[in-house]
Each structure stands twice: as structure tokens, then as C-alpha cells.
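Forwarding the complex inputs:
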Amino acid sequence: DTGVSQDPRHKITKRGQNVTFRCDPISEHNRLYWYRQTLGQGPEFLTYFQNEAQLEKSRLLSDRFSAERPKGSFSTLEIQRTEQGDSAMYLCASSLAGTALFGYTFGSGTRLTVV
Amino acid sequence: QQQVKQSPQSLIVQKGGISIINCAYENTAFDYFPWYQQFPGKGPALLIAIRPDVSEKKEGRFTISFNKSAKQFSLHIMDSQPGDSATYFCAASGETGANNLFFGTGTRLTVIP
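Prediction (whole assembly, two chains):
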């Protein structure tokens, strides 16, 4: 297993365009999390899934953001009508429910730049 | 509102010295306190974690000290090495890390040879 994979690593988009990011978690992990990290700050929670169910969403996740995890495997995060304030690193993490003491495994992130 | 407050923002330590990073929290429901290490261009990686039923946890050169009454915890890096130069984040969550983590703002550590 190569860990948590995120694609693309970098994305530059024009304001108003839609973007979609993909995350492939560690295969046996049933929990998947999305975080956002801006420069000089710690990651901020966006949402998480257990299997295919989206169990919690942060108020940071505006109506322009949507996340899915079909079949409880990979996940996608879509941002519609991007704004400059959406520029950030989007991090995906996964864990196995009941083993949270071992921590999440984060991917290397997708860096979004909105111009 | 920052759930976990972290200091200092940056730290410069000589090789072989001790690096100390401090965090404080308010939410008494938190019961899981991990530290993450992040290198440029990478996602955070779990370094060490503690639960509030112990006051200290040591793994190699890394030690977490936890003060439940003061709602503070700290990371000590002994014999700091240039390879330890990275950004360190403290975090906290409830239900033993089952749900979302609240991260501090990070400490950029530079270890000079």
C-alpha cells in the first residue's frame, strides 16, 4: 500500500471555474477526511466519511463545496464557482474506525491557486 | 475561534539542543492530543500522541508532557537534529480521535548545525 494518494498535486484555475480533486485512501481504511490548510496555518476540518456516509460537515464547507465517497472507496471534493479565497492546500486523510489512537494518515495534498 | 493555541510561531535551536513547543486548549471534552510533523510539500505525519490519563509519553527523542489541570501540553525534542527542521502542529479531538482534529497554528522549527 502506498498510503493516501491525492490528485492532482497542483491546480491553477480561473475565478469562477469549477474544480474537482480526488483522494484514494489506504485501502482498508473506512474513514476519510478532508481538511483545508492555508499558508502559515494548521489544517482545518472540512468533512469526513465513514464508508460512503458523510457523517459531519464543517461550517467552512459552503454550498459551493461538495464531497462524495461512492462505494466507500475513493472520494472527490468539488468546488464550484471558485473564489480567490479558496486558494489553499486541500488535504485528505484516512483512518480505520476504532484505531484513531494511531492517527490519521494524510496525503500530500492538492494545492489550489485561484487567479 | 482557535480551539488549540500553539507557541512559539517559530523556533531556532542549535544541533543537540532541546526544542520545546507549547499548546493550550479550552475544551475539556478533548481526550486525544497528537503532534504532527510536516515537511514542505507534504501532508502532516503523526509523530506522537497522548491521552489525558497519563502525564508524559516518550518515544525516542520525542516526549509529550501533559498537564490536565492547566489544559496544556508540550512537545520536547531532545538532541535536536537538522533533519528535525519542519513545521510541527499540535492537535486535539474528542472521542479518542474518532472525529475531526482541531489543529494549532504550527511552529516552524529550524535546527542549525
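Chain B touches chain A at residues 4, 6, 32, 34, 36, 41-46, 49, 51, 89, 91, 93, 95-106 (CB under 8 Å).
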